[in-house]
Write the structure tokens for this entry.
Amino acid sequence: MSLMPLAEHIGKARIVMLGEASHGTHDYYAIRAQITRMLIAEHGFSFVAVEGDWPDCDRVNQAVLGGGDTDAALHAFARWPTWMWANSEVAAFCRWLRHWNETRPRSARVGFHGLDVYSLWESLQVITDYVRAHEPDSLDAVWDAYRCFEPYHEDPQEYAMSTRLVPRSCETEVMRLLVQARQRETSFDVWQNANVVADAERYYRAMVQGGPDSWNIRDTHMMETIDRLLEHYGSKAKAVIWAHNTHVGDAGATDMAAAGMVNIGQLARERYGRENVVLVGFGSHRGTVIAAPRWGSPWQNMTVPPAQSGSLEDLLRFHLPARTLMVFPRHGQPRWLTETCRHRAIGVVYHPESEGRSNYVPTRLGQRYDAFVWCEQTTSVHPLHTQPAHGEWETYPSGV
């Protein structure tokens, strides 16, 4: 599969988002890593940002910059579903990235960062440790926030439910912490963790209310993290993003828009212009995948059945080679790219025996993505952990 058409299409784009149709498919991770190596080596991209927690990914970042063992940093991922990033495919890419960075000055090295919003307690702990060591006179705001969350035993679900039953939250304490972090001009890592705490507190409160708000808080946080990273790396910085298709593919070309939901693909196009953003989707017809039957349960190696009749994946298997990279024209697209078709999405929780409409997202392919990677048959990713960690609630559109 040649990457040349994609390389030519990227041009001067500042953001390339690489999706995946599941969180547990070897082929998506491997091809995404191949494309990313090309973007770094041939197009000078500055950092990789993934659908993972900032503190966990910061350990990986320190390792790829030359400060530790990348495999050990990935093994330290503890939040379920650990297999999303603690897997052999990501480990191989991070070893390559560390090797790439070793021969370059510190200012030219490529980072690895997390975009997600779940790490409320972990990020608060990072802030506490930093302030205690470097700015002990600023501890008041940190301790106020810490004491406010302490009764919930580091359980975001317990905190979220408490705010629904009693009109009392930690929002005031968190906002004070965020304002103080900004005023004190702390390190970029501490400032980012303060933003995670603020948005995580909002996310968990919104989640128990239902509706699109929690999803939108999460994806807006991820987009604002990309914004901050681009600013941090400098005016010529360029970003590679790894996330599920449901985050990467423009929400405006799916039924998410009618539900009042946005995602990072849509937000990036709106903020930076379509000519500066390239969105790449992924899909397959059948194979195997790592997923779980319910939240927090052990992962299983599951069979992905042949795609349903009439779906995008069912149609593509008749018309494309087994491995294909398609780049779509921006104008004058053929009818099959502009019509709505059902496009499969598999999340960390999956029930292949009852796969139905909930696993298929109505999609206008040529508007949702700029390019698409097709793998007719795929195999499972290779987890580093054999036991699951505690699960988090997660809000996803239908099927993810």
Notes: The chain has 16 helices and ten strands. The beta strands are 15-18, 47-50, 111-114, 239-242, 277-291, 300-304, 323-327, 340-344, 360-364, 371-378. The radius of gyration is 21 Å. The mean pLDDT is 90.
